[in-house]
Amino acid sequence: MESILRASFFIGILASGVRLATPYLYAALGETLSQRSGVLNLGVEGQMLMGAFAAFYVTFQTGNVWLGMLAAMVVGLVMGVAMAFVSVNLQAVQGISGIGFYLFGLGMSTLLFQMLLGTVETVSGFSPVTIPVLSDIPVIGEIFFRQNILVYIAFALVPIVHFVLQKTTLGLKIRAVGENPEAADSLGVSVAGVRYITVTLGGLLSGVAGASMSIALLNVFQQNMTSGLGFIAVALVYFGGWRPVGVMLGALLFSMVNALQLRLQVEGIPVPSDLMVMMPYVLTIIALVLTVQRVRSPSALTKPFKREG
Amino acid sequence: MKRLDFAQILDALLPVFATFAALAVGAVMLLVLGANPIQAYGALLEGAFGSANALAETAVKAVPLLLVGLGICIAFRANVINIGGEGQMIVGAILGTVVGLRLPDGSGWLVVPLALLTGFVGGALWGAIPGALKAYFGVNEILSTVMMNAIAVQIMNFLLRGPLIDPSQAELASQIPQTASLDQAYRLPRLVPTRLHLGAVIAMALAVAVYVLLWRTTLGYRIRAVGENPDASRYGGIRVRRHMVIALLLSGAFAGLAGVTQVYGLNYRMITDGSATGFTGSAGFNGIVAALFGQLHPIGTIPASFFFGALLVGANKLQRVMQVPSSFIIGLNGLVVVFVVSSDIWRRRRQRRRLIAATRKEERETPVTAGLEVS
Predict the structure, then answer these.
(1) Is B140 an interface residue toward A (CB < 8 Å)?
(2) Whether B327 and A277 lie within 8 Å, measured CB to CB
(3) What string of pLDDT tens digits covers the 375 residues of chain B?
(4) Residues B186, B114 share a domain
(5) Do B27 and B131 fall into the same domain?
(6) Domain residues of chain A, as ranges?
(7) Angle formed by the axes of helices A7-36 and A244-267, to 10°?
């Protein structure tokens, strides 16, 4: 028990909390884009699993993590386009088609894993990049500046997505299409085009989220390795009030709880591990209850757009 | 009139076409993986229907799909998307199993009905929570039911490793996380000398009951009204929120019954491999697929469940003969879901066209001046 009170214990948790936030960040920022344009992409989990497998397999075969990352991006992009086609052109009920894509990703990634690998292998994934000077700052350096590059990119994406949404024409179009597609359409904005862009980008980022698990955080692939993380990422978008910064705070909250939970298990704290694993999911529900009443969702969320003749 | 009938038949067949399209995509994937799709689907068919035993196994697999699917029909008709079948099955099964394990010996014939009822109530409880969160706090039920699944799994793992562990396992080093076996007397009777059990009959009877509920009772009418048009329902005096909760509660109840039926009809104990699928066999998800395929109609869900049960049984054969892992079927089911919900656009389009045609006809037949005389 004494070990809990040491400073290194807390620094360790904070550092791994920052690291564990990466998959949440990629997936939830991508989902923020697609939800702000009015499309609920519930296939995130499936896209993550496919991305995780693609990244792992290519890295395993070539030894090149960047090729692995590229593979994850391509797979995520393709699944994003498929989701966009189904929800924009075919106007399918988004909640259910997303579950379909989840099942597809779950089944396919497991199938490919079993056929192409067979057993759990490991790769040497992205290694930590120590930032000169900054990493020497006591405590802060250890927590923030000795992470792998995917962690840095994930956090850099937060202001980027914020900037794109709030300060660019594309961002204005995205928000217009998500709030009032009829008005956007009458002003000559292509509702379908904007939604294709956001949902495809969302898919791509979900693929990266998967890769960040299989070739950076864990360096293994296992069937269903995301175990609901993609769904939590979708919930984080609600929790963060559809704003990148809010999403980041949510992601950090969750990853910190997760890091604490993992660390306590290692320390042998006498709480059944099953109940500890349960905490993030309970937390998600509580977070949803607390936030949903506070923030209004994009008006056109889940509503397919069709021109009325 | 004749054209209308044709259109209706077309609508009913739409999921079938969609499924064929999904199977075709599946065939392409098999080709890419180096398996002959014709042989593969042949193995699937033979595995599912090739013998009396195979048929019985297909029916066995269909039982939880049908029960979960019936609940899905109720929830989706109310426009409440219940993705929590997995968790509801687990909670129903846990509570129902506790009844069989903990009731004093000699409780006799009462135990099984009581256990089934407890499973029903347990699932209802697990469904009512996200239902109430949706109705009264505006929490998206898709997300909350997914989270409830994960919570149920961990509760199951905790209980089967701790308080509910088989006493004989507790003493062994292996510590397999499973409950003690149910008393012989508490097993659901088998129908024919296969694994097919009474649960199949119960599920079929309940399909009729759900049909009656949805289309012959006030409660069912209200549930459907809430799903069709919540604003109009509210205006018409229906308590919309309450009926959302009821729909998700009932939906959970049927999933709970599915869970407890798996224990009393098939395994006679609960065992966990740490995941939800280990216990449910993904029936909580596949039940959604079956219900969608059956166009959210309880009677249509019967053949749909049988069809997807067949896919699951055939998948085992596929694995043995072709070395294609059975996870292929999970992916295929995902495709079926996507294709079936996507195909709905053609039904909606035709419906709209019919409506427009009917309105035009009416306009032609009623003189424009007809209404003017009154005003």
Answers:
(1) yes
(2) no
(3) 445 577 778 887 888 899 999 999 999 999 998 889 999 999 988 988 888 889 999 999 999 999 999 999 999 999 999 999 999 999 999 999 999 998 877 667 889 999 999 999 999 999 999 999 999 998 989 889 999 999 999 999 999 998 999 888 877 777 889 999 998 888 888 887 888 899 999 999 999 999 999 999 999 999 999 999 999 999 999 999 999 999 999 999 999 999 999 999 999 999 998 888 889 988 999 999 899 889 899 999 999 999 999 989 998 888 888 888 888 999 999 999 999 999 988 888 888 888 888 888 887 876 655 554 443
(4) yes
(5) no
(6) 9-292
(7) 140
Q: Which of A90, A101, A284 sits opposite B334 (nearest CB)?
A: A101
Please identify among residues 49-88 of chain B the ones whose CB lies closer than 8 Å to any CB of chain A.
81, 83
Answer whether B189 touches A (CB < 8 Å).
Answer: no
**Contact criterion met (CB below 8 Å) for A87 and A97:** yes
Query: Are B106 and B218 part of one and the same domain?
Result: yes
Q: What is the pLDDT of residue B1?
A: 46
Residues B83 and B149 in one domain: yes
Boundary residue ending a domain (B283, B306, B323): B323
B58: domain CATH number is: 1.10.3470
Q: Verify that B41 and B28 share a domain, yes or no.
A: no
CA distance A90 to B114: 46
In chain A, the residue whose alpha carbon lies closest to the alpha carbon of B336 is: A100
3-state helix, strand, coil in chain B (%, to 5): 80, 0, 20
Tell me which residue range forms the domain holding B132.
Answer: 36-323
Q: How many CB atoms lie within 10 A of CB A133?
A: 8
* Interatomic CA distance for residues B292 and A197, integer angstroms: 29
- Radius of gyration in angstroms for the set of CA atoms belonging to chain B, rounded to a whole number: 23
> Is B230 in the same domain as B349?
no
CA nearest to A175, candidates A159, A186, A164: A164
B337 and B357 inside one domain: yes
Q: Does B151 touch chain A (CB under 8 A)?
A: yes
At residue A220, the 3 state secondary structure works out as: strand
Residues 254..283 of A with a Cβ closer than 8 Å to B: which?
272, 274-275, 277-278, 281-282
pTM: predicted TM-score of the whole model, two decimal places: 0.89
Angle between helical axes of B240-262 and B199-216 (0-180°, round to 10): 170
What are the chain A neighbours of B140 within 8 Å (beta carbons)? 235, 238, 288, 292
Size of the A and B interface in Cβ pairs below 8 Å: 149
Final residue in a domain of this structure, among B323, B339, B362? B323
pLDDT score for B106: 67
Cβ distance of A282 and B292 shorter than 8 Å: no
Nearest CA in chain A to B84: A99
Same domain, B302 and B365: no
CA-to-CA distance for B157 and B164, rounded, in angstroms?
A: 10
The total domain count for chain B is: 2
* CB within 8 Å of A119: residues ≥ 6 apart: none
At the topology level, CATH places domain A9-292 in ABC transporter involved in vitamin B12 uptake, BtuC (1.10.3470)
Distance CA A75, CA A212 (A): 14
Q: How many angstroms separate the CA atoms of A206 and A50, rounded?
A: 9
Nearest to B329 among A42, A107, A234 (CB): A107
